[in-house]
Specification:
Length: 406
């Protein structure tokens, strides 16, 4: 029995399409993650410091712990407080304790005189100038207090965050689960890079590219071998892909007779939420859901694949991890050359960035067609050219999305 035709409609404005994807994302479960494995993960809950930081009053310098009231003057060195090996006694008038950075301030001392500010010899030292109390002393809790909010839910854990969490005594963290993402390229013509090509065959560049683009999101990927352009091959490969949290296909979402992805998705129970977005490249993008699985049908032209990944898939994979900042991070800059506009479609053109990093010049690359991935490899960013008549003049301010290399 012939099934009903697939839905068609006018291409959606990009912001509407992005909103539909955002509404379909449910953040993944929160799970405990050892600090050593937490780099790149997103916190699923707010976390608080488990200790005062520093946990005890300590010295900020290598020098001598003394009483400010004894300065200027000559003092007797009666002991040492080293990091991890505090001085057991307490300091009396006229006494000094050699102290190292991070070592516990001895009882009775109220200031530290750095080693370069004293003259010493024979177990004694001379401080020529009067010193203020509290000089070079780090107070307990001066970085953060025990129980105080340290990092919020939705924060991504980078190196500085790992340092802060470790210092604050947190060995295990509540993180969002990592999304399991299936990558499936489609096309009878596709061969793995390095294979010998027969007439009409091409290398599968979208598979490796999507895999690389995903890496910085933290997702766990499954590469499904490329599906030939038969309904059977599409169904079998998609059935496997749909076992994941996110499915990314490339190719087969346009209007050609061999474009089988949308139909196969439908047969497998994917509810299509939209097809066609008013952007170039990337217009035939499809998006649907099956249960909690997000299903992205990216167009097959390599530049379209890259652009739609950055605009739609990366934000969704980050949102699934509860990321605080998951929208595409546009900057703004000035066009370095005039650019034609198109009625009814926004253009995401490939540009080089130069000049001031805060207000860069965006120079369009020569070769803006959607198959030109080699040209695109020289681009720094996608400049967003609003729909309209005529052209945008050089110097016009537009927004751009950096193409992240890593
Ligand atoms: P399609 O949407 O399947 O018609 O694909 C559009 C264009 O992109 C065709 O020229 C395909 O050969 C090409 N293409 C599709 N998938 C890939 C891929 N994985 N790697 C490189 N090119 C591809
Ligand atoms: Mg195809």
């Amino acid at each position: 029995m012939a099934s009903a035709p697939l839905p068609t409609h006018a291409p959606l404005p990009i912001d509407e399409a992005l909103a539909i994807v955002a509404a379909a994302v449910t953040p993944l479960a929160v799970e405990p993650v050892a600090l050593a494995d937490a780099y790149g993960r997103f916190l699923g809950e707010d976390v608080r410091a488990a200790v005062d930081l520093p946990s005890f009053p300590s010295s900020a310098m290598d020098g001598f712990a003394v009483r400010a009231a004894d300065t200027p003057g000559e003092l007797r060195i009666v002991g040492e407080s080293a990091a991890g090996a505090p001085y057991a006694g307490s300091l009396a008038a006229g006494e000094a304790i050699a102290i190292s950075t991070g070592a516990v301030m001895p009882a009775g001392a109220d200031t530290v005189v750095p080693v370069e500010d004293v003259e010493q010899g024979d177990g004694r030292l001379r401080v020529a100038e009067p010193r203020e109390r509290e000089g070079h002393v780090r107070h307990a809790g001066s970085d953060i207090r025990r129980g105080a909010p340290l990092l919020d839910a939705g924060t991504r854990i980078g190196a500085a965050q790992v340092g802060a969490l470790a210092a604050a005594g947190l060995g295990e963290l509540p993180c969002r689960a990592l999304p399991r993402v299936a990558i499936l390229t489609t096309g009878t013509e596709l061969r793995p890079p390095g294979a010998t090509l027969a007439e009409g065959e091409i290398y599968d560049s979208n598979g490796p590219m999507l895999s690389a683009a995903l890496r910085s999101t933290g997702a766990i990927e499954t590469r499904i071998p490329a599906a030939a352009d038969t309904a059977q091959a599409h169904r079998a490969a998609l059935a496997r892909a749909l076992e994941h949290d996110v499915v990314i296909t490339s190719g087969g979402v346009s209007v050609g007779g061999h474009d089988l992805v949308r139909e196969a998705n439908r047969e497998l129970g994917v509810e299509e939420r939209f097809w066609q977005v008013a952007i170039r490249p990337g217009k035939p993008l499809s998006f649907g859901v099956r249960g909690r699985t997000l299903v992205f049908g990216l167009p097959g032209n390599p530049v379209s694949t890259l652009v739609t990944f950055e605009l739609f898939v990366r934000p969704a994979v980050l949102a699934a991890q509860g990321a605080r900042d998951h929208s595409p991070a546009f900057g703004s800059g000035a066009l370095g050359a005039a650019v034609p506009r198109r009625l009814g479609r926004e253009d995401f053109i490939r540009v080089r960035l130069s000049g001031d990093a805060q207000a860069p010049t965006l120079t369009p690359l020569k070769g803006q067609q959607s198959h030109q991935i080699a040209v695109t490899a020289g681009a720094d960013a996608l400049a967003r050219i609003p729909a309209g008549r005529g052209e945008l003049a050089a110097g016009e301010i537009v927004s751009y999305l950096p193409l992240r290399s890593f």
